Structures are given as structure tokens and as C-alpha cells.
Amino acid sequence: MITFEVKDMTCSHCVSSITKAVRSVDGGAKLQFDLAAHRVQIEPTETDVQGLHEAITEAGYTPVPVVQDAAPAAAVPVRRGACCCSGASGCSS
User: Fold this and answer.
1) Under 8 Å between Cβ of 40 and 17
2) How many angstroms separate the CA atoms of 88 and 12, rounded?
3) Which option is the CATH number for 2-65: 3.30.420.40, 3.30.70.100, 2.40.50.140, 3.40.50.2300?
4) What is the pLDDT of residues 19-31, one digit of tens each?
């Protein structure tokens, strides 16, 4: 899924224009719009981010790719009390 923020997308006419532009380069693309957030999510079938960006730009809009946050990293367990000074190493902690 590719997401663009399109601040100058403000109404259903904009949605229609962007849909038409995207479908001109990728007829099978699936689009989801969030007008309030000025975002469009596109699931392409035939083109890449650059092709979608160019199509939306040529339609008169200003798309900005949104980088999706990566999955949160797994928590690394914190080791407590088991350092090099444990046991018979001679530390007096």
C-alpha cells in the first residue's frame, strides 16, 4: 500500500480527478481516500511510487509520499544482576 498526503485535495471532485489520473497509469489500482486527513492510499497493480506520484502531479495536485512506520522493534530484555561480577569472579557488589 502506498500512501500520499495531498494537501490540495479538498473535495469529491479532487477525489475523482486523482482516481482518474491514477487509473490512467494503473487500471487495476485500488484507492482509498481520507479527505479530512488529505490522504490517499493506493494499492497498485502495474506501476510504482514514482509513476503514481507523476500521475497525481500531472493532474494538478501536490502528492507527498507518507512513510509508513515500521513495526515496533521487539523489546530487548534488560539483564539485571547477572553481569561479569556474578558468582566466583571475585566482585564484591
Assistant:
1) no
2) 74
3) 3.30.70.100
4) 999 999 999 999 9
- The predicted model gives 20-46 an average pLDDT of 97
At 72, is the secondary structure helix, strand, or coil? coil
CA distance 61 to 81: 58
* CA–CA distance, 22 with 14 (Å, rounded to integer): 12
**Grid cell for residue 56:** 497525481
Domain boundaries, the chain: 2-65
CA distance 2 to 10: 19
What span, in angstroms and rounded, lies between the C-alpha atoms of 38 and 35? 5
What is the C-alpha to C-alpha distance for residues 48 and 84, in angstroms, rounded to an integer?
52
Helix axes 12-25, 49-58, angle to 10 degrees: 130
